[in-house]
């Protein structure tokens, strides 16, 4: 008996391309999800104090990150902090709602100099919570474990060192300069 051999089916090239479209779409969806998750990951920087001590600070750059801050966390270690990066220098106020431990708060100008310090700021136990504001405008705010001011002998106008990741920069606004022109009399 002879066996019949079936000819292999040849697919139409137009349909072959259509079969790869779902695969391509799945690949694109995967890439978008991965990139989205990658951008939502927490970012950190090393912050160096004048006494050469350094801490690792979590960055709070977006409005959502800045609003959440250290709320609902159980503790912060002495080698940790949170660095708030603002778009512009301003009088940025902070409160301790839903923060479970006392902290030291430092406001820094665009040159990364300490321009205001609030030390041993207690958690807010009941509303209304007090606000803590600098006396001068700041571009950054650094929150550290309470006692960091004393432990590291930090004081006004000390310069802290850190390098922000690319793409994260505070907006620098230059002071307005007014020119008075006097006409000839």
Polypeptide structure, described:
- It is a single chain.
- The protein has 185 residues and is an alpha+beta fold.
- The protein has a domain at 44-151: Jelly Rolls.
- The protein contains three helices and eight strands; from the N terminus they run αββαββββββα.
- The protein has helices at 13-40, 63-68, 148-151; strands spanning 44-48, 54-60, 80-90, 94-95, 103-108, 114-121, 131-132, 138-145.
- The termini are far apart.
- Residues 30-40 and 172-185 have low confidence and may be disordered.
Could you give a quick summary of the protein structure above?
Helix content is 21%, strand content 26%. With 185 residues, it is α+β, with helices and mostly antiparallel strands.
Largest sheet: 6 strands, mixed
Q: What Rg is obtained from the alpha carbons, in whole angstroms?
A: 28 Å
Order of helices and strands: HEEHEEEEEEH
Write down the overall geometry.
globular
CATH topology annotation of the domain at 44-151? Jelly Rolls
Number of E-type strands = 8
CATH H-level homologous superfamily name of the domain at 44-151: Protein of unknown function DUF192
Please give the CATH class of the domain at 44-151.
Mainly Beta
Strand content: 25-35%
Question: What count of helical segments does DSSP give?
Answer: 3
State the CATH architecture of the domain at 44-151. Sandwich
End-to-end Cα distance, whole Å, is 122 Å
Contiguous low-pLDDT stretches (5 residues minimum) are 30-40, 172-185
Multimeric state = single chain
Structural class of the secondary structure composition? alpha+beta
State the helical fraction: 10-25%
> Which strand order do you get reading across the main beta sheet?
1-2-3-8-5-6
- The overall pLDDT, averaged over residues, is 81
